[in-house]
Design goal:
alpha+beta, seven-stranded mixed beta sheet, five-stranded mixed beta sheet, 15 helices, binds adenosine-5'-triphosphate
């Protein structure tokens, strides 16, 4: 786990940059904050939207055997009993006896180089806790004195539809993962569309977990967003399908512009009993390589469990052969927020421009950039330049997210756009009024090109494809 170098400075820089430039704010800051909950600011909202859209395109639009779904956050409480979450969705929790901060024992052990995970029993974890006492340190105060580890259930409870006042005896849950909504709609989707096995259902939506530790910025949130796809396949084809999806998902991150050296595969050492294979794609976050996405072969566990608990058949009949079977599931599961942090980390560059000058630039791929084009009048106090720039802006904004900026000198405006990753800036000057020629400046090369207004739409369309 700890072979990688941690870059605390980079993490600090990214957190403060994300706040300063309106990407990510801590929730409820005016009330002192709310642990492990974050808000996306104006540019963060755009980036998150572009991440969702890139995923949706790669999964639903480009695969004619995958359909979308938008299931509710609330589901019948039995869903969470069937899925095993009520009984077993827990993390091992211990308290530092010196400073009383809560720690996740499996993470503490892993950081000390001892293999552990949240699937271990309380007894197994406690043995490791005692055996490795001397190696373990409280991340806050450095003490090695911890209380016995207890498994803490991560499901977030609510009183939805319960007016008795003692709702916690029969709680409803905010979903702990989005894929349960997919399993319980498996039959609806089959009955209402023309899908045939193998087919997939994809969805993007909020999930909630009472995460014990609230560190690592948006990597681990208590309210987060998942993008999950469940592929339903014939049992004999499951492993081949699994390998195909491993390849596709790796390629997806390269297409998203992530540097390959910052990605690696991690195989789960301790598989849950029903799983056939489980690998994670890890990204080199500033705090080390950590899970970005899980790609799992889950067997028929999910459909079988829901069939058992609901009493409804969740099977597939092959229309050609009449063979009836319970499909196996190949799952890909990633968070919007973790993708956001990976993308931000990967594209954040501080460039030395020589002569004591530097710039911060987000080298985002064009499809993810929050603003695609910025339009500037060369001078703010020349109404004819401002009017022409407004005209250009009004036309471009119908195609792209654009920003109009007339504040400060053009150099400063370039820097502001570089920081938020805007690929192109268009400047309108006196020459434009005479000849119709504008200057288009490229974020990465900083080169400027003269483009005739008549060709500007086409020029940008080619570049922003
Ligand atoms: P971890 O081991 O890091 O807690 P996990 O194995 O519990 O993650 P899954 O249940 O497999 O995660 O969830 C699938 C994906 O959802 C993860 O790969 C991650 O991208 C995202 N995710 C899970 N938990 C969180 C969270 N608390 N905050 C942000 N994203 C999350």
């Amino acid at each position: 786990m700890s072979e990688e170098k941690k870059d605390d400075k980079l993490m600090e820089k990214i957190v403060s940059f994300a706040k300063r430039r309106g990407f990510v704010f801590g929730s409820s800051e005016i009330y002192g904050g709310f642990a492990a909950v974050y808000d996306f600011g104006p540019y963060g909202t755009e980036l998150a939207k572009n991440i969702r859209e890139a995923w949706w395109k790669a999964m639903v639009q480009e695969n004619d055997n995958i359909v979308g779904l938008d299931s509710s956050i609330f589901m019948h409480p039995k869903v969470w009993e069937a899925s095993g979450h009520v009984g077993g969705f827990s993390d091992p929790l211990s308290e530092c006896k010196q400073c009383h901060s809560r720690v996740r024992v499996d993470h503490l052990l892993e950081d000390a180089g001892v293999f552990a995970d949240e699937k271990m029993t309380e007894e197994e974890i406690n043995i490791l806790l005692v055996e490795n006492k001397e190696k373990l340190r409280c991340p806050k105060c450095g003490s090695s004195d911890f209380s016995e580890s207890k498994n803490f259930n991560l499901l977030v409870q609510s009183n939805l539809g319960n007016f008795t006042g003692d709702w916690d005896k029969e709680p409803t849950y905010l979903r702990g993962e989005t894929c349960q909504g997919i399993y319980i709609n498996f039959k609806n989707v089959m009955d209402s569309t023309r899908v045939k096995v193998p087919f997939g259902i994809a969805q993007v939506g909020k999930a909630f977990r009472n995460e014990i530790t609230a560190r690592q910025f948006i990597f681990r949130k208590r309210e987060f967003e998942q993008m999950e796809m469940q592929m339903f396949v014939h049992p004999d084809d499951a492993m081949e399908m699994y390998e195909q999806w491993r390849e596709k998902r790796w390629q997806y991150y390269l297409d998203l512009g992530i540097k390959e050296e910052n990605l690696k595969w991690h195989e789960h050492e301790n598989l849950v009993f029903y799983a056939k294979a489980a690998w994670d794609i890890e990204y080199k976050f500033p705090f080390g390589f950590k899970e970005l996405e899980g790609v799992h072969a889950r067997g028929d566990y999910d459909l079988t469990q829901h069939a058992k608990h609901s009493g409804k058949k969740l099977e597939y009949r092959n229309p050609q052969t009449n063979e009836v079977f319970v499909p196996h599931v190949v799952e890909t599961s990633v968070g919007v927020d973790r993708t956001f942090l990976a993308v931000l980390t990967d594209s954040y560059v501080e460039e030395d421009l020589g002569e004591g000058k530097s710039r911060t630039v987000l080298k985002l791929p064009v499809n993810l950039a929050p603003v695609k084009v910025a339009v500037f009048p060369l001078m703010k106090n020349k109404p004819e330049l401002v009017a022409k720039a407004r005209e250009v802006f009004d036309e471009l904004k119908m195609q792209y997210m654009c920003e109009f900026d007339d504040n400060g000198n053009v150099g400063k405006r370039y820097r502001r756009q570089d920081e938020i990753g805007t690929p192109y800036c268009v400047t309108i000057d006196f020459n434009t009024l005479e000849t119709g020629i504008v200057t288009v400046r490229n974020r990465d090369t900083m080169e400027q090109e003269n483009v005739n207004l008549e060709n500007l739409q086409k020029y940008l369309a080619d570049k922003l494809k």
